[in-house]
Write a structure and sequence with these properties.
With about 375 residues, the protein is α/β, with parallel strands linked by helices. The protein has two domains: about 190 residues, Rossmann fold (3-Layer(aba) Sandwich); about 180 residues, Glycogen Phosphorylase B (Rossmann fold, 3-Layer(aba) Sandwich), CATH 3.40.50.2000. The chain contains 15 helices and 13 strands. The strands form two sheets. Strands 3-2-1-4-5-6-7 form a seven-stranded parallel β-sheet, with helices on both faces. It has a six-stranded parallel β-sheet with strand order 10-9-8-11-12-13, with helices on both faces. The mean pLDDT is about 95. The structure holds uridine-5'-diphosphate and alpha-D-glucopyranose.
Length: about 375
Amino acid sequence: MKILFLDQSGKPGGAELCLLDIAKPYRHDALVGLFADGSFKHLLQQNSIPVEVLTTQAIQVRKESSLIQGLKSLGQLTPLITKVVKKAHEYDLIYANTQKALVVGAIASFLSHRPLVYHLHDILSPEHFSQTNIHIAVNLANNFASLIIANSQASKAAFMQAGGRPNIIEVVYNGFEPKIYQNHQSDINKLQQHLGLQGKFIVGHFSRLAPWKGQHILIAALAQSLQEVTAILVGDALFGEQDYVQQLHQQVTELGLENRVKFLGFRSDIPQLMAACDLVAHTSTSPEPFGRVIVEAMLCGKPVVAAKAGGAMELIEHGLNGFLVTPGEPQELAQVITTCLQETEITASIANNASITASERFDIATINQQIAQLLKSVLDISRN
Ligand code: UDP
Ligand code: GLC
């Protein structure tokens, strides 16, 4: 099957890392078309997945854009759409992995007579997007997509709540390669030593720095935790959230936590860093559509505490394979941190359950089979 994947980002966010795993089995006959240059292109190249940057001109639509701004950007898209239509003729199917890719992919699908699949990685609710953005995404998906793959029941529910057609949407969770998340104790010790964190209780936060990812909640919780609790914040402001980065540093200074919070920036050694933690915290203040970091922590055999909303609630059963806390409540988070620090046996057994359930539920081989079947049925229908 020849697939033209489209993604608007030059940087490797969760949707892009998910696409990397989905595109791998098709690499001999696929192309990933990006709407921006950057490190995601290099990641695809390292994995021998053909990639082409189709435009380097920024598309001026943001999550909160109005209709007028949206329409203005359509004109700007014409050269990109023309290019995609031409390419699409060489492929069997167009696979749009982001919202701007959906806009371009929908028009290209119509003009090239190639079926369109949309991978929905977002919760299309007013907490995350403007009404205009939601309206455009739902209408394009309803009218042009043969299939929508939602990354969670939460993303599917929000899509239908916004008027999306229920008969074209299927939930497929992100897949992972469990063995990547297994680490040796000697390497873990070395990394802890290298980070100067030996003997500390390390809480890891793994996410791009953005207000809704809630790093400020973890910092506030730290101020209410025992002295030995230290946090590592792994991730960078991928989409220009520099003000938030400043605020986080200021918060750390104001609370006198300079020695207990380390900003490590964007890293490629996530499994190793997670293994070096005693607890992984997910603190999104708006519902997380899926939450790759939650599953990754589970696969590393680490206890994980997540904000109780969106996809996170499909990944964790509180007290069985992780902990769920009210989003935006540092005190509750601080209590879980203390429990994990003090109740080591129960916490270890919860983490062990998590690693077993996660490797069963999210194995990339099974997930890719599900996707292959879905894509095959799209092609079968489009050819009849
Ligand atoms: N990640 C990474 N390096 C970092 C921080 C995060 O590779 O420094 C990865 C992380 O392991 C996860 C992804 O980025 O696989 C983030 O995906 P998630 O679904 O958690 O959130 P998103 O940013 O997509 O909303
Ligand atoms: C998006 C979502 C995140 C999800 C990822 C992969 O980036 O924000 O929750 O895990 O896509 O589906």
